[in-house]
UniProtKB/TrEMBL annotation:
<dbReference type="InterPro" id="IPR058924">
    <property type="entry name" value="AGPR_dimerisation_dom"/>
</dbReference>
<dbReference type="GO" id="GO:0051287">
    <property type="term" value="F:NAD binding"/>
</dbReference>
<dbReference type="InterPro" id="IPR050085">
    <property type="entry name" value="AGPR"/>
</dbReference>
<feature type="domain" description="Semialdehyde dehydrogenase NAD-binding">
    <location>
        <begin position="5"/>
        <end position="106"/>
    </location>
</feature>
<feature type="active site">
    <location>
        <position position="117"/>
    </location>
</feature>
<dbReference type="Pfam" id="PF22698">
    <property type="entry name" value="Semialdhyde_dhC_1"/>
</dbReference>
<comment type="pathway">
    <text>Amino-acid biosynthesis; L-arginine biosynthesis; N(2)-acetyl-L-ornithine from L-glutamate: step 3/4.</text>
</comment>
<keyword id="KW-0521">NADP</keyword>
<dbReference type="InterPro" id="IPR036291">
    <property type="entry name" value="NAD(P)-bd_dom_sf"/>
</dbReference>
<dbReference type="InterPro" id="IPR000534">
    <property type="entry name" value="Semialdehyde_DH_NAD-bd"/>
</dbReference>
<keyword id="KW-0055">Arginine biosynthesis</keyword>
<comment type="similarity">
    <text>Belongs to the NAGSA dehydrogenase family. Type 2 subfamily.</text>
</comment>
<keyword id="KW-0560">Oxidoreductase</keyword>
<keyword id="KW-0028">Amino-acid biosynthesis</keyword>
<dbReference type="InterPro" id="IPR023013">
    <property type="entry name" value="AGPR_AS"/>
</dbReference>
<keyword id="KW-0963">Cytoplasm</keyword>
<dbReference type="InterPro" id="IPR010136">
    <property type="entry name" value="AGPR_type-2"/>
</dbReference>
Length: 310
């Protein structure tokens, strides 16, 4: 029986290390990584990627584009964890729960773009509501999100865990230029006709994301309530292995959200909170930025592709 060869290009970053840990020791595939001294050898990297059944790219955007350009073997399949190809025509977006056909598209695809961490939560909340006509595609949206510092890569981890950790900020809000690279990805795959405002931040904890999107019911189509929004999400994700939708949370009964609640898993927890008298709704997502937001999603997509390979 053929054991597929999986090459991880860039296995020393936060995402690559997590993918390697999730796949290491499995006997249904062979894992290929390059020694540290050879990771920047372009010839060896090209040979490795062209020898693989599936290559997982955990690289900066430009390096990911170069890696794809080096592929000459038409049988090589790629999962790109960078943001280089998330809105590129011909690439399949690696969010299996996007719609009923997306998992099959991923399973058959030659090129899969792994979703960004923040977009995973935003798109999971918005796409079903827009597709159902409950949320206008031109709604003036603001997406707020707080991630653990590991979302900033090795440099951020070093700032918080290295010798100068005491000087690291407790909370760091960034993306204030309102041109964050995740915004086109959110807009395209959520089905928005207008660009949303995106306000990301890092907290002084290692991993986990809480993402929120506020809505005013007066700006929604007539008859759309928080209960209908929650029911739409619950129906869309009914039976989804990794996505859970909480019952509607109203007023004073609303609970607090812990961004670390599902760390070290591939779970994505969605919820709808509302204050009916105020006419306000809050859509929320909690997930691990290193799990469903990165390495967990890559392994989920790999599983789909391997199953299709037989």
């Amino acid at each position: 029986m053929h054991q597929p060869l999986v090459f991880i290009d860039g296995d020393q970053g936060t995402t690559g290390l997590q993918i390697h840990a999730r796949l290491n020791g499995r006997n249904d595939l062979r894992l290929l990584t390059l020694p540290a001294a050879e990771r920047k050898n372009l010839q060896l990297r090209a040979e490795a990627i062209n020898s693989a059944d599936v290559a997982i790219l955990c690289l900066p955007d430009d390096a990911a584009r170069d890696a794809v350009a080096a592929i000459v073997n038409p049988d090589v399949r790629v999962i790109d964890a960078s943001s280089a190809h998330r809105t590129t025509p011909g690439w399949v977006y690696g969010l299996p729960e996007l719609d009923e056909q997306q998992a099959e598209r991923i399973a058959r695809a030659k090129r899969v773009s792994n979703p960004g961490c923040y977009p995973t939560g935003a798109i999971a909340l918005l796409r079903p509501l827009i597709a159902a006509g409950l949320l206008p595609a031109d709604y003036p949206l603001t997406v707020n999100a707080v991630s653990g510092y590991s979302g900033g890569g090795r440099a951020a981890v070093e700032r918080h865990e290295g010798p100068d950790a005491q000087a690291a900020q407790g909370v760091l809000v960034y993306g204030l230029h309102l041109d964050h690279k995740h915004v086109p990805e959110i807009q395209q795959h959520a089905g928005l006709s207008q660009r949303p405002v995106f306000v990301p931040s890092y907290g002084s904890y290692r991993q986990g994301i809480v993402l929120t999107i506020a809505l005013q019911t007066r700006l929604l189509p007539a008859g759309v309530t928080a209960a209908r929004l929650q029911a739409c999400l619950a129906e869309h994700y009914n039976g989804a292995r990794y996505v859970q939708v909480a019952p509607l949370q109203l007023g004073a009964s609303a609970v607090q959200l812990d961004p670390q609640a599902v760390n070290d898993s591939n779970d994505l927890r969605l919820a709808v909170f509302a204050h009916e008298q105020h006419g306000q709704v809050l859509l929320t997502a909690v997930f691990d930025n290193l799990g469903k937001g990165a390495s967990g999603a890559a392994v989920q997509n790999l599983e789909l592709m391997l199953a299709a390979m037989g």
